[in-house]
Design brief:
Strand order of the largest sheet: 2-3-4-1-5
Order of helices and strands: HEHHEHEHEHEHHHHHHHHH
Helix content: 55-70%
Number of strands: 5
Distance between the termini: 57 Å
CATH superfamily of the largest domain: P-loop containing nucleotide triphosphate hydrolases
Radius of gyration: 22 Å
Structural class: alpha/beta
Bound molecules: zinc ion
Shape: globular
Number of domains: 2
Largest sheet: 5 strands, parallel
CATH topology of the largest domain: Rossmann fold
Length: 329
């Protein structure tokens, strides 16, 4: 990426200004929903800072120097990217463990090999175990000179306060008009389709673009609407399964989006004031469950997706029954 996405522009300007004054924070926590290009932005920053030559402006990578070349082929010796590891059976682990963080902190204490900056990118902070968090705290408290940690999350609520308080938090500007304008330059879709995609993707621009490119607005709408009906007890879990033509894999992905949407919109909490706290927790649990199924799937597990979908639908239906009961009483 030669330019940052427009929704990160204001963030970039702030970083540029503190960088030029030599007051760049040691840790930046990029908090944005899935599909907003967090990793692209983190890579942009890392590459630009590693490339930076005194006097050059603005903060951008030249794309041609040694640092840029090495970064481009992911072999820059002063960059570490931390994500969940894949074990020897090819399965992705559930979390980022303490060993990975220890190795990282050791690496960050070594002398840099190239430009003087050492940069770590942690692609999903909330994947870290508690002991991994604790191991990272020390580095966040006493970072070496010219050390930058870029932490990414799509769930700021789940990031421990001890981590948040030691980072500068960056949030993109995902205002409706900005997202719509950007999308209309990327696709030939109609305004109506763009509006729908933005709504389905909860304003995450790249996710919305994906929806438009995949041309799956209709099936998404159908799944979302059916899940609403299950909650309203107008559709049983069995009927839900019977009426859908999608593969289970894509259904799980849509479930994840739906429950993420419910969680963000606080729709259920608003509808069930009496049960607001329970509703909040329930949606959180279901979303968590769907995400772990998805992970297990990516990790090559043989869990039976149909049974998992059924279990979620039953839970959703039962909760709906409770809500309906209250609203009738
Ligand atoms: Zn360069």
């Amino acid at each position: 990426m030669t330019e940052v996405f427009p929704w990160f522009k204001a963030n970039l300007e702030r970083i540029e200004s503190s960088f030029n004054q030599g007051r760049l924070a040691h840790a930046l926590l990029i908090a944005a929903p899935f599909g907003a290009g967090k990793l692209e932005f983190a890579n942009y920053l890392a590459k630009a800072i590693l490339c930076y030559q005194p006097g050059s402006e603005p903060l951008a990578a030249c794309g041609e120097c040694k640092a840029c070349t090495l970064f481009g082929v992911q072999t820059h010796p002063d960059v570490r990217s931390i994500e969940r590891l894949v074990d020897n059976k090819g399965k992705q682990k559930q979390s980022i463990g303490i060993d990975q963080i220890r190795e990282l902190t050791n690496k960050l204490s070594e002398t840099p090999q190239l430009s003087g900056w050492r940069i770590a990118i942690i692609t999903s902070v909330t994947d870290m175990t508690t002991s991994a968090f604790n191991a990272l705290l020390k580095t966040l408290e006493e970072p070496g000179k010219k050390t930058l940690l870029l932490l990414l999350t799509d769930n700021l609520q789940k990031v421990p306060a001890t981590i948040k308080s030691r980072c500068q938090i960056l949030k993109p500007d995902l205002s409706h008009q900005l997202v719509i304008n950007w999308l209309s330059k990327q696709t030939d879709s109609t305004n109506e389709q763009i509006e729908q995609a933005v709504e389905l993707a909860i304003a995450a621009p790249l996710a919305a673009l994906q929806i438009l490119n995949d041309g799956v607005i209709e099936s998404r709408k159908q799944v979302f609407c059916s899940l609403d009906q299950v909650l309203a007890n107008q559709l049983t879990p069995q009927e839900f399964i019977a009426q859908l033509e999608l593969e289970e894999d894509s259904l799980i992905a849509l479930f994840a989006e739906y429950f993420h949407f419910i969680q963000c919109s606080k729709k259920l909490v608003r509808e069930s004031t009496q049960y607001a706290r329970v509703a909040d927790q329930l949606v959180f649990d279901i979303y968590d469950k769907v995400i772990s199924y998805q992970r297990a799937q990516f990790g090559g597990s043989n869990l039976q997706p149909k049974l998992q979908l059924q279990a979620i639908l039953i839970q959703w239906f039962e909760f709906g029954r409770k809500l309906n009961h209250i609203s009738r009483a």
